[in-house]
Amino acid sequence: MGPLLDVHDFVNLLVGFLLGLLPLIIPIVMRQLRVRRSGIRAKYLGNFRLYHWGGVVPTAVRAKKLTISMAWSGRLHAVMPIDPITNLSYRGELVVSSSGLLYLDMVGVGHGEHIMIVLNAPIHSSFDLTTGVFSAIDMMGTPSAFRTILSHVELTDEQVYTILGFRQVLKAARLPTSTATDLEKQDS
How many domains does the chain have? Predict the structure, then answer.
């Protein structure tokens, strides 16, 4: 008794399987070609510098590297390598909204801290420089938000200070109570 499938049958089976996958593969390839040719998202790709006021040294401006690349799915992946001061790194996604905003959602690698950066999206220009709001927790665990800059080019300290302006950090203080019922008891 010979083998269950000879070589000829195996080749026919393999070709049939691959032809069956074509209806799944063609839309993915077409979407990729459309996204990559459109250039709409191309301006958001590359290496950037993210500038913001420091959390460890509050009077210093921090500069972090950020790389944005496109996945095969069309999503924009963001990677912030290990910071030499904090030894923390982040990975996430850049979401381009139709409202003129960009959402950079990042999660810490190995530590789980979550940061959200909301940026102004330059609609009719290249994406060399934009500003936004950086939100995260500070070193004491308090939710904080402050101005930030995302730039394709490295900026001088003077340029960063001019754009960021004075140091103003919004911090959300923790409430002494956790429910509305507790607040009502305090008012009485």
Answer: 2
- Are 157 and 116 found together in one domain? yes
- CA distance linking residue 117 with residue 152, whole number of Å: 16
Handedness of CA 98, 99, 101, 106 (dihedral sign): negative
* Least confident segment among 4-8, 45-49, 145-149: 4-8
- What is the torsion angle, in degrees rounded to the nearest 10, for the CA atoms of residue 91, residue 65, residue 157 and residue 167? 10
pLDDT in tens, 54-93: 765 666 788 899 999 988 777 899 999 998 878 889 999 9
Q: What does the block give as tokens for 103?
A: 């959402």
